[in-house]
Amino acid sequence: MSKLKWPSPGSIYFLAVCALLYLPIFLLIIFSFNNATALVFPLKGFTLQWYGKLFENRELFKAVGNSLMIGVGSSIAATMLGTMGAIAIVRFRLPGRGAFLAVAALPLVIPYVILGVSLLILFNEVGIPLSAFAAGLAHVIISIPYAMLIVASRLVGFPDNLEEAAMDLGASYWEALLRVTIPICSPALLAAFLLCFTMSFDEYAIASFLVGTDATLPVYLYSQLRFPTRLPMVVALAAILMTITMVVMLLSEWLRRAGQISERKA
Amino acid sequence: MTEPAVEIRNVTKLFSSKRGKRSEEVYAVREMNLSIPRGKFFTLLGPSGCGKTTTLRLIAGFESPTNGEVFIQGMPMSKVPPNQRPVNTVFQNYALFPHMNVARNVAFGLEIKRVPKAERERLVGEALELVKLADMGDRKPSQLSGGQQQRVALARALVNRPAVLLLDEPLGALDLKLRKAMQIELKHIQEQVGITFVYVTHDQEEALTMSDLIAVMKDGLIQQLGDPVTLYKTPTNKFVADFIGESNFIKGTVDSVRGGKARIMVGGEQVEAGGGEGSLKTGQAITFTIRPEKINISRAGSGGTSGTVQERVYIGTDTRYLVTLISGETVIVRVQNGCGSEAGEFAKGEQVTVRWSPEDARILTD
After folding, report:
1. Which residues of A fall within a CB distance of 8 Å from B97?
2. Which of A167, B138, B323, B324 is most exposed, with minimal Cβ within 10 Å?
3. What distance in Å separates residue A193's CA from the closest CA in chain B?
């Protein structure tokens, strides 16, 4: 005699949230394989033609190239600067530490549209031409707080007498940093890099103001929406982007946790 | 003339801490003068917050003195950063590098000094041999027990052949049995390598077990400096007498002074005590100390001070009696079992007589 068990309100809520978040993405992936231009049910049949068209598109490849270049460059710079900031706020009792933290975290709360416009004005004034380089510079600015917070959270849980021990054994401060601190923080550094990269890779608002003719992938995608026949191709591209972004995010989170667990064991 | 391994001259260390708008200044070390001879096992002993770790960090160079100067082998250290001082430290929580295996941890100092690889491997092997971890070189620190990590930290410091090895409560995290074993071993290693050890601990028994010389510290000041026997037998003040071993403190007034010994009136009864060094005056109120095992307890009626047994505690090797003297003072008496006296010789409430040799009773200066 089995009693019909009603799902608890909590699990219904959870399922609703999941559906809201992932159903559109799921639909996107379905439509990318649909043999029709219009994104409506019923489905017309399976096709890979939209993916095929993607790979024939030269402009698209150029945009992907720009995005990768901007992403990798800005992430490396942001991770380095963020790490330096993290060491400064965690290791040293600097005067004005609170103010520094607040200013460094500001890009987190400024709307990107506003940041985009203001950087456009600034870059014009100082004579930096609108280009992939300008967009990359802007991405460094928005990525620094993320990199800094990730690395700082690693440094906080890190026994600071390891650096003392290294110096006690004859290492200079820089040797201690390079041989002890940085290697132990490397999972956090990689996680910070990956997060910055995904931020840069799919950032549209700022890039649209600053790239000039070097369209990044999101900028290119948005420009293609004017042509209804190319819509399914854009959908296919979005499906690919979505998959890559999720994989990278999961990887960075896994790295961050792996770093913390190995530390706890030690 | 050889200079001492470490000399601390007039060193004061002041820490300022800000709490809200109030800023506080705390003396961690006050006008300290200390000379640590070469090749000795030297211990800084004191309760937490007495400045012993700060003293160690001043020698290592992690703190710089507010005033005064630290000399290592006769060289002033004020302008020498920690990484250029001829000292190495064994940290309280070992501070092993978690991303390197044991051999790389031990080799760290030699790598920094660019010792050639073959030489380095030989020295690392010897150091691991010394701490009995010869076959553990490939392990990561997280795969070792606390005692083994402790040995790695020791090997990592000793492999550099420092002039002085600083040890900051290195046995604090180990369990009692392992700690006792490591105490003996540390002492052996020190004798074997002949390096000056400066050891910080709050455990008086540990200090007595290992040290050639002990400086007892409190509130940033050295209370007494001496070898274990001197400190135990002739403590100069109440803090030292209380901190090292167990002590009875008895108040009285000076009745007469005669050749280094004084007759003391304790509640109408006369006893004798040594120490005080000639500064005593008749009628002066003083405190003297006597170790529980130096008090002889016998049946009432024999010569000595009378008292009543308040409490009898059997602790295996010894029996402890709490005896209230007729003056009202309570003293602890410790009698070793199986040496002509067995537990239960004196019952609770029994009238007894206690007595001691005058040289075992020490008059304290403060």
Report:
1. 162, 165-166, 180, 184
2. B138
3. 21
Which residues on chain B are in Cβ contact (under 8 Å) with A171?
83, 108, 112
pLDDT digits over B29-79, tens only? Answer: 989 999 999 999 999 999 988 889 999 999 999 989 998 999 999 899 988
Nearest residue in B to A161, CA atom: B95
**Domain stops at, among B179, B207, B242:** B242
Whether B97 and A180 lie within 8 Å, measured CB to CB: yes
Q: Report which DSSP code applies to B317.
A: S
Asked if B121 and B212 sit in the same domain, the reply is: yes
Q: Which of B15, B62, B92, B99 to mutate to test the interface with A (most CBs of A within 10 A)?
A: B99
**Do the beta carbons of residue B255 and residue B270 sit within 8 Å?**
yes
* Chain A contact set for B156 (CB, 8 A): 169
Answer for the pair B209, B182: CB distance below 8 angstroms, yes or no.
no
Whichever domain contains B216, its CATH number is 3.40.50.300
Q: How many domains does chain B have?
A: 2
Transcribe A8-55 into DSSP letters.
PHHHHHHHHHHHHHHHHHHHHHHHHTBSSSS--SSP--B--HHHHHHH
Peptide linkage before A129 cis (omega within 30 of 0) = no
In A, which residues are within 8 Å of B112 by CB distance? 169-171, 175
Does residue B342 have a pLDDT over 60?
no
Q: What is the pLDDT of residues B350-361, one digit of tens each?
A: 888 888 888 888
Q: What is the CATH number of the domain that holds B265?
A: 2.40.50.140
Contact status, residue B272 vs residue B257, Cβ threshold 8 Å: no
How far B59 CA lies from chain A's nearest CA (Å)?
Answer: 11
Query: Using one digit for the tens of pLDDT, what is the confidence trace for B98-127?
Result: 889 999 999 999 999 899 999 999 999 999
Nearest to A47 by CA among A26, A28, A29, A32: A32
Instruction: Please give the structure tokens belonging to residue B124.
Output: 């690392």
Same-domain check for residues B250 and B236? no
Kindly state whether residues B23 and B133 are assigned to the same domain. yes
In this prediction the pTM is 0.77
Tell me, yes or no, whether B285 and B298 share the same domain.
Answer: yes
Interface check for A185 against chain B (CB to CB < 8 A): the answer is no
Q: How far is B79 from chain A (nearest CA, A)?
A: 15
Which pair of structure tokens corresponds to residue A203?
């950032």
What CATH architecture is A51-265?
A: Orthogonal Bundle (1.10)
Domain with B32, as residue range(s), is: 6-242
Taking CB atoms and an 8 Å limit, are A167 and B81 in contact across chains?
Answer: yes
Contact in structure between A48 and A208 (CB atoms under 8 Å) = no
A157 touches chain B (CB under 8 A): no
Same domain for B211 and B171: yes
The nearest CA of chain A is from the CA of B98 a distance in Å of 6
Among residues B177, B211, B242, which one ends one of the domains? B242
Give tens-digit pLDDT for B128-179. Answer: 988 888 888 888 988 888 888 989 999 999 999 999 999 999 888 788 888 8
Query: How close, in Å, is residue A265 to chain B by CA atoms?
Result: 6
Chain B: residue nearest A168 by CA?
B83
Please indicate if any CB of chain B lies within 8 Å of the CB of A164. yes
Query: Do B175 and B157 share a domain, yes or no?
Result: yes
- In angstroms, rounded to a whole number, what is the distance separating the alpha carbons of residues B364 and B215? 18
* B238 & B317 share domain: no
Strand partners, B290: B248
Tell me what pLDDT residue A59 has.
83
